[in-house]
Amino acid sequence: MKKIISLIVAFIGVFIIGVIIGRFILAPHPPLADDNRPVYPTIYITGSSGKATTMNTMINDVTSDKDTRARKGLTIVVDTEKNYSLKVTGTIDKHNSYPTIAVGMVKGTNNSLKYEGSLKAIMSYLGKHYNIPYANVLGYSAGGSGVYRYLTEYGYDRSLPPIKKWVSLDGQFNASTPQPDQTLAQVLTDGPKDKTKYYDYWLENYEHVDKSIQVVLLAGDYDSKKQTDGIVPWADSFSIYPLLMKNGNSVVHYLIKGKNTSHDEMPFNKEAINYIKVFFYE
Question: Which Pfam families match (predicted)?
């Protein structure tokens, strides 16, 4: 009898120790989708400021529209100086099949390589902890070139969740280089005459992008005479259009007109947001 009591006491002791270790010593496991159910996130990547809050107006509008079925999910801040470590806040609960993921950085940058590394770390994290048949991605400003760079490096990497749709919002692909000797129509057909080293990279690697990815290139019609959003010329934001066409991607370009079309205002532009809602959540 004493042996049985001793065994019971020992079992209880081991159980209590296990609970303590699991709760207070081991790092908590990120919230997982119930029963491995699929979730379809849309990732909103900030521009060179690095602030995830830049995307708040867009995300608030998207998630308040019942037709999108989207709900707020996670905010992820990337520390590019610490091996792309992630600070993840928020949850994706069992009722949220279309979560938004707001992405920022500890330190702002316009370096597309850092955006590429950040997106890879994020996609690896999401793929590890959630069942993701596909994700959609928006890249604003320098974030646009970062997404494109990621797609050229990892577009066919099936160890990562696939990307179905990509929106570039005032993306920068040619160092904000104007094309005074070309019309926009010529840029859309032939690409820019004045090419920087950044554009040379796209020329060398555009065929690495998964042909099934659907793309929308948006730019603000802030100054029609100078053909710019005030910072990035249209010839830059749309410069990769002929490459995507040549690669066989479904791609459209669209100028957003009216109010709030300067580069800094585009994340808050109502027409741009409505276009994005239809494209991502139709």
Answer: DUF915
Collapse the DSSP code of 121 into the 3-class scheme (helix H, G, I; strand E, B; otherwise coil) and give the result.
helix
How far is 282 from 280, CA to CA, in rounded Å?
6
pLDDT tens by residue, the chain, 282 residues: 544 445 444 444 434 444 333 433 333 334 444 558 999 999 999 999 999 999 999 999 999 999 999 999 999 999 999 999 999 999 999 999 999 999 999 999 999 999 999 999 999 999 999 999 999 999 999 999 999 999 999 989 999 999 999 999 999 999 999 999 999 999 999 999 999 999 999 999 999 999 999 999 999 999 999 999 999 999 999 999 999 999 999 999 999 999 999 999 999 999 999 999 999 998
Q: Which of 241, 256, 238 is nearest to 176 (CA)?
A: 238
SS3 157: coil
